[in-house]
């Protein structure tokens, strides 16, 4: 008889009152007519119109009361639905409500947050879902269970072990090892100023503290630094560190983004957009450092 979305709204600009929409239920209609004897049904708008300046507030109160009345009924329907088609899973416990416990998973969180009236209980270390939300939980359960199984410690361990034998993992370990050396190939004839923040392709915005003077073996560096090409001349190693927040704040940004020539040499003056990203990361680093300070 009516739409499932409940909420008052003006019927027309020249009418003083508000509309009421709620799921059809014969007893609910009788209660509504008792509460609002002047209400009139509109077949065209599929809603009730309640006249009066305070109609919207009165409808809101009535809808809230109806929702409270329906909770036991809806919970009973949910229990019946569970008894007819139960979820059998090690991640679900049944008590006076439904309790979901899984390993941490972003997907599980997103799915459970989408279930009406689901809430996290810190004391129980579980998500609590009332029986009236059982149908919604059951619809999302396949995704929840897959994500939970994927997040199991043994499954994560198995994936890590399998990944260690892949070429991609070995390449990532090599890149991480190279990063820990804090060195970077720079064109010998076009070096940045020591102590000034500059942008790089691989490591973001950094500050060079020293030029070692050691020529770079380009055949060894090519895998990590594509800009270090033989056609570009000689390269020397520069020792770098991450720029501090104070250095990033004091760096004057470039007016335009780096062009092909600047990117080819491997370093350039950062733009304001690049500096903003680096500043956010630097603030986070400093906050973590202060939080862990004794």
Q: What is the gist of this entry?
A:
The chain folds into 3 domains: 17-82, no CATH class; 92-153, no CATH class; 174-291, no CATH class. It is 43% helix and 19% strand. The protein has helices at 26-35, 55-84, 106-113, 134-150, 153-164, 167-180, 218-221, 245-250, 260-265, 272-291, and strands at 17-20, 40-42, 47-51, 92-94, 98-100, 119-121, 126-129, 183-187, 197-200, 204-215, 235-242, 267-268.
Q: What would you say this structure looks like, in words?
A:
With 294 residues, the protein is of the alpha+beta class. It has three domains: 17-82, no CATH class; 92-153, no CATH class; 174-291, no CATH class. 43% of the residues lie in helices and 19% in strands. It contains ten helices and twelve strands. The chain has a five-stranded antiparallel sheet. Strands 4-5-7-6 form a four-stranded antiparallel sheet, with no helix packed on it. It has a three-stranded antiparallel sheet with strand order 1-3-2, covered by helices on one side. The chain is elongated. The chain starts with 16 loop residues before the first strand and ends with a helix.
Task: Give the helix/strand layout.
Layout: E1 17-20, H1 26-35, E2 40-42, E3 47-51, H2 55-84, E4 92-94, E5 98-100, H3 106-113, E6 119-121, E7 126-129, H4 134-150, H5 153-164, H6 167-180, E8 183-187, E9 197-200, E10 204-215, H7 218-221, E11 235-242, H8 245-250, H9 260-265, E12 267-268, H10 272-291
Antiparallel strand pairs: 1-3, 2-3, 4-5, 5-7, 6-7, 8-11, 9-10, 9-12, 10-11
List keywords for this structure.
disordered N terminus; 5-stranded antiparallel beta sheet; single chain; 294 residues; alpha+beta; elongated; 4-stranded antiparallel beta sheet
């Amino acid at each position: 008889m009516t739409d499932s979305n409940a909420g008052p709204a003006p019927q027309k600009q020249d009418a003083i009152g508000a509309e009421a929409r709620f799921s059809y239920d014969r007893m609910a209609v009788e209660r509504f007519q008792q509460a609002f004897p002047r209400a009139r049904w509109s077949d065209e708008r599929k809603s009730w119109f309640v006249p009066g300046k305070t109609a919207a507030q009165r409808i809101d109160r009535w809808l809230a009361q109806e929702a409270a009345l329906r909770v036991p009924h809806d919970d009973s329907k949910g229990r019946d639905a569970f008894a007819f088609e139960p979820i059998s899973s090690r991640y679900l416990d049944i008590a006076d409500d439904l309790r979901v416990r899984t390993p941490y998973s972003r997907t599980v969180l997103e799915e459970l947050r989408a279930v009406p009236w689901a809430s996290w209980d810190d004391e129980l270390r579980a998500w609590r879902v009332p029986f009236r939300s059982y149908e919604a939980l059951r619809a999302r359960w396949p995704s929840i269970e897959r994500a939970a199984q994927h997040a199991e410690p043994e499954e994560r361990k198995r994936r890590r072990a399998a990944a260690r034998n892949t070429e991609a993992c070995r390449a990532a370990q090599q890149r991480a090892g190279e990063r820990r050396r804090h060195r970077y190939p720079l064109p010998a004839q076009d070096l940045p100023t020591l102590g000034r923040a500059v942008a790089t392709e691989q490591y973001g915005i950094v500050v060079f503290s020293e030029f070692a003077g050691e020529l770079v073996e380009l055949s060894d560096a090519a895998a990590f630094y594509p800009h270090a090409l033989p056609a570009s001349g000689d390269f020397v190693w520069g020792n770098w560190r991450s720029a501090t927040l104070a250095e990033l704040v004091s760096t004057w940004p470039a007016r335009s983004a780096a062009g092909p020539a600047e990117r080819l040499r491997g370093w350039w003056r950062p733009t304001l957009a690049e500096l903003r990203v680096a500043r956010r990361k630097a603030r986070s680093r400093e906050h973590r450092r202060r939080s862990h300070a004794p």
